[in-house]
Structure formats: C-alpha cells, structure tokens
Here is the input.
Amino acid sequence: MRRCFAVGVWALVLNFVFLINVRAETSGFDAAFNQQLLGPERAMGVVVWNHGRSINVEDAESPTPPYLRTFRDSGWDVLRFNRIRDGDTLNASTRRLIEQVVQLKHKGYQRIVLAGQSFGAFLALMAADTSQDVDAVVATSPAAFGSFDEFYETWRLNATRLYPLLERIKRARVMLFFFHGDDFDPGGRGERARTILSARQIGFSVVDQPAFLSGHWASSSGLFLRRFGNCIRDFVADDKLEGERICEPEWGEAPSAELRLPDDLLHPRPANHGAASASGGSAPAAIATVSASGGSKSGRQSWYGFYPNGREVLLAVEGVHGTDIDAVYAIGPGIDENEPAEWRHRKGHLVDDEFVFDEQGESTLRFRLRAEGGLSATWTSPDGKSSMEAGLRRLDLQHFLRHADAR
Here is the structure.
C-alpha cells in the first residue's frame, strides 16, 4: 500500500479538533525505544521524534528511525510524539507538541530537540517557530502538502510554506535533509534554505542531495544511520555553534575498519596473476573483464559498496576457470547486535554478464557488470523471502594493505 503524506490545504485550518491524547510515562510522549529513561537530571537532553502522516495507515505504528539510536546510546532520552491521523492537522498537532515541550522544560531537561520526518518535520519546525524552549530541530524530507503525482495543486507548498518557517524560528539550531528522488520535494529547497538560515544568528546545517541516499524515506535506513548518525548527534550537542556546520561523512566512500576480510586477501602471497579464460569462441563480457590483465597488485579484481540496511559489501574474485568462479564475499556488521561482520569463500559461475553464486543453503548472490566497470548486486536470502540491491564500485585491494597495517 503506497504511503502518502499529503493532507491538502485543509491542514492549515484551525477549527479541527485534535483527537489524540496519547499519554506515556513522560509528559504525554511514548518512549521511542525499549529502554529505561534516564530522566532530566541524568540525561544529556531529550529528543522528541515526530513521525509522518499517511492517508491509509497509522504512522504512529511505524518504527523509530535507526539514526535516533545514536542519541539513545550517547545518554539522551528519546521519546515519540504519536498521533492518530484523524484530526492530525498542522496547527492542532503543533499546539499539542508545544504544550508537551513546556512540560519537558518544567521537568528540568536542559536540552530539548525536536526531530521529524515529512509531516512531522513541519510540526517540529512550526513548534520551534513558536517556542523558546526548543534548542534544535532535525528535519528530514519536510513535506505536508502532497506529492507531485497525487497532489500536484498543493505540492509546491512543500517549498513555499517551508521558507517562512525557517525565517521565523525563535532560537533553535536547524538541521535539514533533502534527498534525491523525493516525490514530495519541488526542488531547489536546499539552496534557498541555506540562504535563509545563513542570514540568521543561529547554527544550522543543510544536507542537500547526499550521496548514496535517495527517496522520501532515506532517513529511515540503516545506511542513513551509518553515514549521518554521528554528525547529527554532534550538531545537536554543539550549543555554541554559529553559522553552518558542514556534514560530509567518510563512511561509504571507502571500506571501514569494521569490514572483516581473510588474511590471505589482505596479505596475498606471490601467485599467478592471470585467471584462466573461457575456452572456445568469444568469452562472455564478465569473463573478459575479470581475466583482463592489470588491476590490483594481488592479481584479484574487487568491488565495494553497501546495502540499504547499512551493511558494507565486498566481492573479490580470486580465480576464473572456464565459466566457474571463486570469490571472497564479505559483509560488514549490521546496525543490530545479531548481525556481525563476516566473510565467506563462494563458488559460482558466469552467465553472460553476471556472476552467480547459488550454492545450496547459502544466500543467492548475483552481480551484473555495469558499463563503467562497477557491479549491480542482488542478495537474496536462502529461503527466497527477502532481497536487497546495491551498487558496487571497483576497488584497489592495496587500500586494505595500507589501512590494515596502520591498524
């Protein structure tokens, strides 16, 4: 079922009654994670997550974005402002949010941060426009007026109603994320937002079209946590920030120290460099590429990338014999404790422009060669019920030799 955040112009009318009165142990909010809250005397501060608003489903039941774990693990209390979509209007929900912020301040929290996605991002910004108690806002994919395809008449309001909010914010630092391929984004919001915020005496950060992330829901991915979690935490904690904080994470540009690899891949012995070519006729494109001379000094061809869940992936072809292929397949740790980094020796075969690894009892791996020399990767679970895709770039394995020796 396709989710839509559009609410139409009616969302601005004041005479809607806010129907939700969800109360939890702390100021009418729910705990965002299954954790014991530290309380205002012990916590670094409190982060309130504001979910989006969909037409057909209750976003109050949606999971908390993984990037907020960074706050939880750094000594912050993380709460959710859950709202039933019937009666969830911008003005009514903002009033309720501000009331709860006041209670958090009275309880003694020294820092109050509002984070939000889409409709929730608009709520967070509107509350910061009104309240002096909000110290920072993290707004991802702000949108409250529909997508290009389904609400074209109000779609541009996602930009024109955003700019006045940024101009009126009382004192909160503002961090904004805009993603490539977001159907709710009219375009050009990053530069305009940066111009508005840079003219004010508050700290800000605008992350516009970041690499490797796309779509309206990009901030809900493990990849977003890996790339931006620490930067968001540091931005929010920097009470003395003036001007723009540039957020350019290195994660994903090159393999991290978390990616485990076999020792013989990191420190190869002198060996034959050429892989056996296919016999008879013209070799498939994949074989021709892997069998070509050159590449890394180890004689192996390798590619690196990451899955949307934030796990790094590396494929290193060790040898080709006819249409059979030997390779090392490695994935980095996941964002959950039960997903450790691991590597396997895999045996597969070449079919046209694909490397296919489909051993019984193992995940199925398919890698299709791209024109620029990279790979399009597809991982399928052993039971065939789930799959992920990734884009891999060519990699010089000597990178690992240098960094492994440094470690």
Remarks:
- The chain has two domains: 9-237, 263-406.
